[in-house]
Amino acid sequence: MAQRDPGLEQRLVELEHELRGTLGVVAHELPVQSDAAGGRKAREGVAYRADHAFPAASTIKVFVLQALLEHAAAGRLGLDDERVLAPSDQVTGSGILKDLTPGRRYTLLDLARLMITISDNTATNMLIDALCVESVNTSIARHGWSKTHLAGLLQRPDLASAGDTRRSTTSPGDLADAFTRLWRGELLPPPLTAVARSIYRKQQRTDQLGRFLPYDAYSTETGEASLVIASKSGSPGPALPPRQPRCHHRGEGLAPGLRALRERSGGRGVTEHQVAGRVTAARRRDRPTASSATIRFGTQANQATTA
User: Fold this and answer.
1) Do residues 199 and 117 touch, judged by C-beta distance below 8 A?
2) Closest CA to 230 of 292, 143, 147
3) Residues facing 227 on adjacent strands
4) Local confidence band at 290 (pLDDT 50, 70, 90 cut-offs)
């Protein structure tokens, strides 16, 4: 367990007051070995509002991917199984399938890649249809992610009951735990753990943290970079009720991500609209130890969430 960093936690309290919003953070390093096995101790970590339930937006897709890979592990679905894109599947928001020709077939694995790497809402709904909402929530409950809940298909208010304002939710603690256990190999068989890691490492929305780190997307793609960002982001649209968190980001990585947060969280020159920038952690190829970070914050005028 990472040691607490009271200084950083106090800075988060000050930042939250400064932004007049709600901030939640869980960040810690993942040592290669436990202390009992003779490995070095984890560096300082932070947990602030770890169990606060926030609207999940597209970070709920982390748990859809987990449920899909569990079904594959159990033999209930194959990642090569195909689904036909129907016009009724195409929904608004992020993604590319909404603009492509209906009637084409896509494997579940390709839908999962689209769901994570470009946050495709249509691909997500096709996966939820294949799994069913109850199955995803059963997976969530089995792992103890008590603040996380999938409310239903994305961008489909027509399917909600009259007056039903429920949203999918999650917490910094649940997201951090999911990524921590995934990177430790505790959630899935090794081959499917590798599949999940590969998908997250192909995340295309890496520009926010990449500005503060020696990160280059092209070098990462060609295998020449020393820094890899593995994450899941999301941004709910204006249909959300006012004052709801607006942006989420969740990532896996090294302490430099935490140091970047420490250095950049002073709020100097940061406007309310710029606060919506995403923060993830990162992992260096030449250093196997990783950290897990979940960050959320917002303002009254323009709520933002980062995980």
Assistant:
1) yes
2) 292
3) 284
4) very low
**Residue 290 phi/psi, 5° resolution?**
-120, 165
Residue bearing tokens 């059963």: 138
pLDDT mean over 207-230: 70
C-alpha atoms less than 13 angstroms from C-alpha of 216 in its C-beta half-sphere: 7
Rounded to 10 degrees, what is the CA torsion of 203, 209, 212, 218? 10
Note if the pTM is more than 0.85.
no
Q: Is the dihedral of CA 60, 65, 66, 70 positive or negative?
A: positive
CA end-to-end span of the chain? 20
Helix (H, G, I), strand (E, B) or coil at 298: coil
Six token digits for residue 49: 């509002």
| C-alpha span between 275 and 267 (Å, rounded) | 9
Q: How many CB atoms lie within 10 A of CB 60?
A: 26
Whole-number Å distance between alpha carbons of 7 and 77: 47
Q: H-helix or E-strand containing 67?
A: helix 61-74
Across the range 244-268, mean pLDDT stands at 36
The chain-wide mean pLDDT, for the chain, equals 74
Which H or E run contains 112? helix 108-117
Going by C-beta distance under 8 Å and a sequence separation of 6 or more, which residues neighbour residue 80? 107, 108, 109
Backbone angles phi, psi at 286, to 5 degrees: -90, 0
Structure tokens of 112? 């999962």
Mean pLDDT of 73-86: 97
* Separation between Cα atoms, residue 105 and residue 97, nearest integer Å: 11
Q: Helix, strand or coil for residue 86? A: coil
Least confident interval from 132-141, 160-169, 225-234, 288-297: 288-297
H or E element that contains 199: helix 190-201
% helix / strand / coil in the chain, to the nearest 5? 40, 15, 45
Pairwise CA distance, residues 148 & 180, whole Å: 16
